[in-house]
């Protein structure tokens, strides 16, 4: 009996050690392998499209893609702001830029479709980055669900889920013409940890993660070479999060570090459709989600209060 128990414990121990070793090796390979973003820099004048490209993470994606030789379409709702960004970008790079001015809360009408398709007509589009977020208002708050108005509910759903869905409907066929292609969906740590003040944002991001998984399998099933990734993202120092460069740390990424990490994790055959590209976020999520739920909630509530305080100072 004791021998059988010993053998069972040995099997469990060996299995656990093997699993831990495999996860450790997989993690090291994931974060240490070289970037393969250039896999999507092919054909005549490859183009990338970045939504929410006026500021923050989106603008940094524009800069780093241009540095790698991609021509870039910048999407935003303010033509004035986009033109200002264009005037700053053009002297820095030899690549070309175009603008897509479109309100993410706009309904999907024939005019909507025409605007999007006109922006990419005749282009060798190989990369699409769905970065746009928010609720359609200039000021982004974190209200509890009981405080949402009907307009705010629609805003969070429209910007984070509906707009991205319709862009995907229009742009995926364009990517198929220029395979291999890449499509990234910006998700959030809120899908890992329930966050007060982010209920509709969480629901929309969970929807995008599920959409990414389905599209990833559909592309494989149909024999298409289109890489689909959703990015589980923690705190990044942007105006929208109320953080600045002085707040950058191991768990609060700068936009440069986050985008560099993201572009390093694409084009990899071992990859899964849902990734956490920045290692500081991965460590943070792993530590928090390993804790009891009650303690997780206490930590998340504390983090949310700090973000709310930062946002209040910004105002």
From TrEMBL:
Keywords: Oxidoreductase. One of its GO terms (cellular component) is endoplasmic reticulum. InterPro entries: NAD(P)-bd_dom_sf (IPR036291), SDR_fam (IPR002347), VLCFA-Steroid_DH (IPR051019). GO terms for molecular function: oxidoreductase activity. It comes from the Eukaryota. Belongs to the short-chain dehydrogenases/reductases (SDR) family. This is NAD(P)-binding protein. It comes from Cladophialophora yegresii CBS 114405.
């Amino acid at each position: 009996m004791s021998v059988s128990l010993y053998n069972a414990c040995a099997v469990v121990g060996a299995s656990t050690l093997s699993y831990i070793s495999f996860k450790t090796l997989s993690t090291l390979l994931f974060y240490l392998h070289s970037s393969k973003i250039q896999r999507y820099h092919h054909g005549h004048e490859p183009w990338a499209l970045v939504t929410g490209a006026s500021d923050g993470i989106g603008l940094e994606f524009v800069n780093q893609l241009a540095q790698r030789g991609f021509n870039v379409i910048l999407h935003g709702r303010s033509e004035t702001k986009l033109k200002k960004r264009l005037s700053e970008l053009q002297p820095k790079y030899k690549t070309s830029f175009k603008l897509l001015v479109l309100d993410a809360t706009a309904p999907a009408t024939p005019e909507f479709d025409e605007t999007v398709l006109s922006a990419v007509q005749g282009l060798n589009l190989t990369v699409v980055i769905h970065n746009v977020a928010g609720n359609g208002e200039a000021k982004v708050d974190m209200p509890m669900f009981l405080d949402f108005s009907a307009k705010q509910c629609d805003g969070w759903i429209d910007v984070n889920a509906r707009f991205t869905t319709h862009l995907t409907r229009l742009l995926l066929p364009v990517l198929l013409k220029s395979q291999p292609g890449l499509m990234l969906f910006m998700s959030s740590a809120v899908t890992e940890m329930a966050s007060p003040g982010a209920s509709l944002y969480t629901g929309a991001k969970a929807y995008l993660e599920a959409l990414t998984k389905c599209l990833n399998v559909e592309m494989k099933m149909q024999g298409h070479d289109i890489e689909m990734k959703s990015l589980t993202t923690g705190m990044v120092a942007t105006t929208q999060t109320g953080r600045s460069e002085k707040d950058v740390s191991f768990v609060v990424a700068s936009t440069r570090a986050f985008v560099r990490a993201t572009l390093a994790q694409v084009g990899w055959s071992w990859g899964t459709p849902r990734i956490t590209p920045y290692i500081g976020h991965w460590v943070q999520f792993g530590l928090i989600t390993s804790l009891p739920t009650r303690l997780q909630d206490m930590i998340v509530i504390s983090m949310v209060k700090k973000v709310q305080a930062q946002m209040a100072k910004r105002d």
